[in-house]
Design brief:
The chain is an alpha+beta fold. It folds into two domains: 119 residues, Muramoyl-pentapeptide Carboxypeptidase, domain 2, CATH 3.30.1380; 41 residues, no CATH class. Helices cover 37% and strands 13% of the residues. The protein contains seven helices and five strands. The protein is globular, with a radius of gyration of 16 Å. Bound molecules: zinc ion. Zinc ion binds next to strand 1.
């Protein structure tokens, strides 16, 4: 099932971690609508501009999958554990909902992108300068390695904040890594 000319539902829901953990990563109708907007407003314009086929490395994640990726069974190095450490709270079922509420992959609004042959900073700069989006994050980018990390981008059906961040080992910083 195509969500836009070059992007299908299956490539926005496929996940090795879901398969490994027996998680059914299936969006409901609201999440489907968000994924269709993501494909039409972000993924397809990037495909059309660069003219290079690519598939997002991550799209929709149901809550069980988000938990497997971000918490990974109490691992102290997990994103959720680090988020809790910065707030001096414990990673547990009581603090999880606050963390989860801020995540945009589970709503179907976000995709993680890499385009073969295009430095991730150049990809993020093109999106920043040409597309409407809610959040654009250059993730784990490294100045000496153009292929390091990936570009996270979300599109909201409501208010798009046009927020631009770079996330490295020390946490989020405003703007892109240039
Ligand atoms: Zn992401």
């Amino acid at each position: 099932m195509h969500l836009s000319k070059n992007f299908t539902l299956s490539e926005l829901t496929k996940s090795v971690i879901a398969l490994q953990n027996g998680i059914r990563n299936e969006p409901n109708s609201d999440q489907m609508l968000s994924l269709t907007l993501l494909a039409g407003k972000i993924l397809q314009p990037v495909r059309d501009h660069f003219g290079i086929p690519y598939s997002p490395t991550s799209g929709f994640r149901c809550e069980a999958l988000e938990k497997a990726i971000c918490w990974g069974g109490n691992d102290a190095k997990s994103s959720f554990a680090k988020w809790c450490a910065r707030r001096a709270i414990m990673p547990n079922e009581e603090t999880w909902p606050d963390y989860f509420a801020k995540k945009s992959h589970p709503s179907g609004e976000a995709g993680d992108l890499e385009v073969p042959g295009i430095p991730n900073l150049a990809l993020a700069e093109w999106i920043r300068d040409n597309l409407e989006f809610d959040q654009l994050i250059l993730e784990f980018w490294s100045p000496g390695d153009p292929g390091a990390g990936w570009v996270h981008c979300s599109f909201s059906a409501g208010n798009n904040r046009h927020e631009v961040l770079t996330i490295g080992p020390g946490g989020p910083l405003a703007g892109l890594g240039d």
